[in-house]
Amino acid sequence: MDFPLIRMRRLRRSEPMRTLVRETRLHPGALIAPLFICPGEGVRRAISSMPGVFNQSIDEAIKDATEAAKLGIGGFLLFGLPEMKDEQATGAWDDHGIVQQALRTMKRERALDSTLLIADVCLCEYMSHGHCGIVRSATGGAYEIENDSSVELIAKTAASLARAGADIVAPSDMMDGRVAAIREALDDEQLHDTPILSYASKFASAFYGPFREAADSAPQFGDRRSYQMDGANRREALREIELDLSEGADMVLMKPALPYLDVIREARDRYDVPLGAYQVSGEYSMLQAAFERGWLDRDRAMLESLISIRRAGADFIVTYFAQAAAKLL
Ligand code: PBG
User: Catalytic annotation on 327?
Assistant: First the structure.
């Protein structure tokens, strides 16, 4: 059977018809908004490379989060900008750290009960050198990001954030063995019910550029290619996911999103676990730049980028467009 019996355009003729046959949907509950928490009160500092995104003190973050919660947003992913950085990332695992304080305060806000508070677990924002782990320097300027000692701090950080009230902990460092270490640290403290959302498939990407301004976490030397994945590798991503699931990850986060949609699809087909994708800072900034020039239609391009990530197989999306998209949905 083909034309003229079949006319594909019959089902495209009106919006109700298109709505009826739409295969993929976006809903606010599947969108997660990142928050960058800084010390102080009444602070709302614009991030030049990410129009519409701010470093915010806890009180300001609560204002925005409350508005977003009213839109039905799924949750928030918290990052911290500590007062001080050092070479042990003390601010990450300190029970009085900036994100721990934010979590405790936000957990008392009834208006946020309908949303999830997800704590990004990483050391880079708290390290004076900006790497995601402990740096051991060798002679002649060589250095190494130590895996196992970093994992100890990462597990300690996750436990501290869960104690402070994180609904979910999300390790983003890409050290080996950290999911198992975090599970053990949580279970040791009777935090059996805190899920781990592992950034299992994280590529070393140029698209994280603007984030490093937002989180003040650019490495002071070298780059992250000895721990994050090479962008050319699809099979390696699947192996990373497999390992993290075997270590006890409850959910998996993949990033970046747009340049890696094929990897998201492959993971979706292979693993029956909840999958999230992170539409990262650079993906946001390049679209914003085009919107500012009037080169792309803001609402349509934003929603199209998000639906493509859902169509590739992501159940939920971490995105700087969360509030703006939720308003349109
Ligand atoms: C921390 C972390 C990064 C991002 C999320 N967690 C930065 C990095 O790995 O360099 C990137 C998020 C974004 O670009 O929006 N390790």
Answer: no
